[in-house]
């Protein structure tokens, strides 16, 4: 992608992030984003052919990349794969709850977004997460720490579903014991 196009896309994503904070994801329009970026609507549509949904997804993916960078640093300090799974899920739940834009995209009824936009976002999120954990996943499987019969894509989707359910149906107290009892055994090789 040419540098000018990348710069314009980044400018639009920054403007969208600002508008989402000001108006909320559900009420932000392409006109709002274009005005905040100091660009025409046509330029926004040329840069993001999918329109508003594609801009929302770009903001979500940037937020997610930032979270995954912080999570990777934190997981490197965990004593075991089991601890990494538990703390990764706990951190992901806290991240989504603490980021209204992300929460709005993962709970479509709260934001009023179309199911199509959410499904597209989920697909991108799953792919990004799988790509980020793939090297660690492969290493853990080689060392016999993860079940050999699972795939990174399946494990990420499973954890994504667990995280989504924990957001939708919060538990009282610390969820770590629940995760250690029911989620960890689904992924980690028993010793």
UniProtKB/TrEMBL annotation:
Origin superkingdom: Bacteria
Keyword Transcription regulation included in the entry's annotation: yes
Keyword vocabulary terms for this entry: DNA-binding, Transcription, Transcription regulation
InterPro entries for the chain: Homeodomain-like_sf, HTH-type_TetR-like_transc_reg, HTH_TetR, Tet_transcr_reg_TetR-rel_C_sf
PROSITE patterns named among the record's database cross-references: HTH_TETR_2
Matches recorded under Pfam families: TetR_N (PF00440)
DNA-binding span(s): 29-48
HTH tetR-type domain span: 6-66
SUPFAM superfamilies: Homeodomain-like, Tetracyclin repressor-like, C-terminal domain
PANTHER family reported in the protein's UniProt record: HTH-TYPE TRANSCRIPTIONAL REGULATOR BETI, HTH-TYPE TRANSCRIPTIONAL REGULATOR RUTR
Protein name from the UniProt record: TetR/AcrR family transcriptional regulator
